[in-house]
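Reopening: structure tokens for the S-adenosylmethionine complex, inputs below.
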Amino acid sequence: MDGRLKTFLKSRFPALVPLLRRLKFIGTSPQERFAKIYRRNTWGDEDSSSGSGSNLAQTEAVRAVLSSLVRELNCRTILDIPCGDFFWMKLVDLDIDYIGGDIIDEMIRDNQHQYGNSRRRFLRLDLLQDELPKVDLIFCRDCLVHFSYEHIFPALANIKRSQNAYLLTTTFVHRDRNEDIPTGGWRPINLQVAPFNFPAALRLIDERCPEAEYRDKHLGLWRTADIPVL
Ligand SMILES: C[S@@+](CC[C@H](N)C(=O)[O-])C[C@H]1O[C@@H](n2cnc3c(N)ncnc32)[C@H](O)[C@@H]1O
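Re-run output (same inputs, fresh job):
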């Protein structure tokens, strides 16, 4: 649908917005949706093809604390899924074995070529269904916010099934309700309210998101064993 027509319909008939969002994704698999976003740089950030949430300003607070958290938890291995284009993570001095996983083949190939080494490798992994490597910490930033409930539940089940010790993942702590969206879109989610109902996090890291509307963006740390069976 023509962009101007879409903007017109959205402004004149706001009730149509959920339907328009769904139409956009009809006939494409979740993998194709994310591959298209990557190829076309749809999330269009100057720094990172993984979107503005992955630029230097928006990752400053996370970059400042991630390595000390990893040390504190005695982690020797981390799975960063999804790793996206590894733009900001390349600046974090982790000093542990790192596996980056993402669903987009060409991005994984590019990452492996540019950043792979003896302690860092990149694997094409589908968080929804692939068996996850054995690690101490699963880092899942800015991922579930792009998934429909239909995909969040299997992703969480897969993480729990991995029996890896910890999950560090995005949660917006001041939302009192969640909404469903088609996979490939975006909205904030709070993992501690319905339908996810996570227990209190072991740790909450404030991302200090510079966007006023999203100031409550955090990374929450849970034991994977404590992820509720959904
Ligand atoms: C917004 S980016 C976040 C990247 C990274 N975590 C960061 O903080 O920069 C979302 C990523 O999720 C990946 N993705 C989407 N569905 C996935 C799936 N089922 N399994 C693994 N990765 C997936 C996309 O390809 C995209 O690279």
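Helices lie at 3-12, 17-25, 30-40, 56-72, 105-115, 149-161. The first strand starts at residue 77 and ends at 80. Marking as resolved unless the reporter disagrees.
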